[in-house]
Design goal:
246 residues; four-stranded antiparallel beta sheet; alpha+beta
Length: 246
């Protein structure tokens, strides 16, 4: 209750020329790229930086169940949804700068997983990805005059259509990964936030689970069998207050 986590949070605002301004900006996450050895070193450094009181042996990944959360990184188009008392009032994509984007509010009525009204009268910003299930892409894409190369390109093309009505029956989905609110919400961790959003808020939230070395391997092996594209796995400090401290 004494946290100042939301003191500087504002929202997405509609500006000139059908643009929206995101405040705070929609930033990207740090990457863990390179050879297997380089990636392992980056990962161990992240653990040491996140939990400085626990020094991990060199190149040894800890197996903490409740300190770290793990989820798939969906390969879609970043989108921010602004709700006032539960009603969707603004939706915008992200530009390269992260501080602005295209206003697509009128198109959200044809996007699954992003209700025009939440199950609770909450004023908040919900951020996530717009994407298309692979099965839907394969079915609808072949009917287009100019088929797209992959689901991400297909999603971007649909979002870029001139009118909202053209998006009807395109099968675009929204998957949330963050909630920003000045109100105190009934969760303290990444995992509990995902469960609460899916069950109580009525919005589709990315599956988030406890981290473990076996879970990491399982997700890497299973991603080719999914009905949506992923371009990585996200590891995050599970406790939200701890994220702010870091």
């Amino acid at each position: 209750p004494d946290s100042n986590i939301f003191d500087t949070v504002t929202s997405s605002k509609i500006s000139a020329k059908n643009k929206v301004t995101h405040d705070p900006p929609m930033t990207s996450i740090n990457k863990c790229n390179g050879t297997e050895e380089e990636k392992k070193e980056i990962l161990i450094k992240w653990f040491n930086d996140s939990f400085p009181d626990h020094k991990f042996p060199y190149k040894q990944i800890p197996d903490w169940d409740d300190a770290v959360a793990i989820s798939y990184k969906r390969d879609g188009i970043a989108c921010s949804l602004e709700y006032e008392k539960g009603k969707l009032v603004c939706a915008g994509t992200r530009s390269k700068s992260g501080s602005e984007g295209e206003n697509i509010t009128d198109k959200m009525k044809y996007v699954e997983g992003a209700p025009l009204r939440l199950a609770l009268p909450l004023t908040c910003t919900i951020r996530g990805e717009l994407d298309t299930p692979i099965s839907v892409f394969e079915k609808v894409n072949q009917t287009l005059p100019k088929p797209k190369a992959n689901p991400r390109a297909y999603t971007a093309g649909a979002i870029g259509l001139k009118t909202a009505e053209e998006m009807k029956d395109r099968g675009i989905h929204f998957i949330a990964y963050n909630i920003i609110s000045k109100e105190k919400l009934p969760y303290n961790t990444e995992i509990d936030r995902a469960i609460w959003a899916n069950k109580k808020l009525g919005i589709t939230f990315v599956r988030t689970e406890k981290f473990g070395k076996k879970k990491l391997v399982d997700l890497e092996e299973q991603h080719r069998d999914l009905d949506y594209l992923v371009d990585g796995i996200v590891l995050s400090v599970n406790w939200l207050e701890r994220q702010v401290e870091l």
